[in-house]
Specification:
By secondary structure, the protein is mostly beta strands. The protein has three helices and 14 strands.
Length: 312
Amino acid sequence: MSHRLRFMILAAVMTVAPLTGGYAQEITAYDFLRIPMNARAAALGNTFLTMRNDVTSLFSNPAALASLETPAASVGFFKHLLDVNAGYAVYGQQLEGIGTVSAGVVYLDYGSFEETDRFGDRTGAEFGAGDLAVSLGYGRSTGNLAYGAALKFVYSSIENYSSSAAAADLGVSYYFPDEQIVLAAGVLNLGTQLGSYAGIDESLPFDVRFGVGKKLEHLPLNIMFNFHKLNESEHRFENYSIGGEFDLSNALKARVGYYNEMRRELKIGNTAKLAGFSGGFGLRISTYTVDYAYNSLGEIGALHRFSLSSTF
């Protein structure tokens, strides 16, 4: 590949991950794993560790799968910057006497690239680049305590080159039903590369999180607070997010969120505009729910996500 093509791909990769949650101090592989793919989580500022009864918890805290009340499925899609397309699909259900099992996939498609020689002249060939992660999850509860794990295979490709990894997500949560409080902790992307692009092993975007959620008694609001990247020394307690979900009716929910790390990293000069802020809604029609999320990137623009979920 020419230097020009390498630069184009690198620009796409670096734009996707850092602007949506991949703010690791060190350069890691597969930073797309940090991106909240589903619209509900994105609208809440990626504050999803304590969420209950949502099948997409497979991607954030597999322990929450134990709270799944009925079989459920969810799919989502959003068009990223630089014509990058991303999405997910997930299904989960309880198995009596065993626990809750789930399977899901997330992907990023960076589109097609035109190959050129060292002078920038097209050779006529085109190639693609993409990332993919397939997850299998399990959650179980004992009283008010829930625990879970998800194993995933990660694959990334550029032209004829590829890399892969095996990783695990671990989670635990405790629910106080009288106070309607949830405490949760998670370890995400614990694993290793199976094969790398250049033959040099890279670290995965390892992430230790802690969160608390509270459904208010006299207000139809579920408010959540999460710490992200507690394993990193710099800005450790500044990597937090806050989200709130309002039950406007049995069919309609409104959501707002704030991700402090995103706002800090997207600040340009003395202003960040609305970077780090998010919002959205969920509309339930029969057994189907349509979710939408708006995430501001400040001066750079904004992202829009859509998800469709159903119970069975």
